[in-house]
């Protein structure tokens, strides 16, 4: 199937790299003598998830997202929320590993297509993970919403990425991601083919229909090759 594509674009978090936020938060708070409980994590996510939705709808910017999610803890610890965010991202950079099959997939497809990342994640974290995994050489383009100024599913961020890949047409581009509302909907609206990486922890809305659906990256490699 890979012969039908000139470019394959990937989301980053939970598509190419694991993103264990609970582990990262626990590591960060341990630096301050705080034992971070599952209940604490639920409270964090109750604040964090709506902020990510607002970010994707362009109602807040990246800096507001980074700090507002830590505002309650900043008051408790008497520290700037920006400091907690920096420490959290540093902990995530150290702990996040590639998903199973990521390296083999990138090695297999890179001789055949141009490869890129479009992420709503943050610049420093992505570059740290690429450096620690030696993955940088696989990618022809990195588009990070924090730098671009718009987040997925905005069609502009997909169009901008294709502009960096001269000669890549939307209809000959595959977008791969784990989040239907940003990765798959964004790819569809940009005129791309899409593949949903379904880890079994998200619901596919009835209004979003990916072209393909796979449970793992090795399954995607089998589908493509």
Structural topology:
Layout: E1 7-10, H1 21-30, H2 38-56, H3 62-68, H4 71-77, H5 81-95, H6 102-109, E2 114-119, H7 123-133, E3 141-144, H8 145-148, H9 155-164, E4 173-177, H10 180-189, E5 193-197, E6 212-214, H11 217-224
Parallel strand pairs: 1-2, 1-4, 2-3, 4-5, 5-6
Give a verbal description of the structure.
It is a single chain. With about 220 residues, this protein is an alpha/beta fold. The protein folds into two domains: about 1-15 and about 100-225, Rossmann fold (3-Layer(aba) Sandwich); about 20-95, DNA polymerase, domain 1. Helices cover about 50% and strands about 10% of the residues. The chain contains eleven helices and six strands. It has helices at about 20-30, 40-55, 60-70, 70-75, 80-95, 100-110, 125-135, 145-150, 155-165, 180-190, 215-225, and strands at about 5-10, 115-120, 140-145, 175, 195, 210-215. It has a six-stranded parallel sheet with strand order 3-2-1-4-5-6, with helices on both faces. Strand 2, helix 7 (about 125-135) and strand 3 (about 140-145) form a beta-alpha-beta unit. Helix 5 (about 80-95) packs parallel to helix 7 (about 125-135). It is globular. The mean pLDDT is about 95.
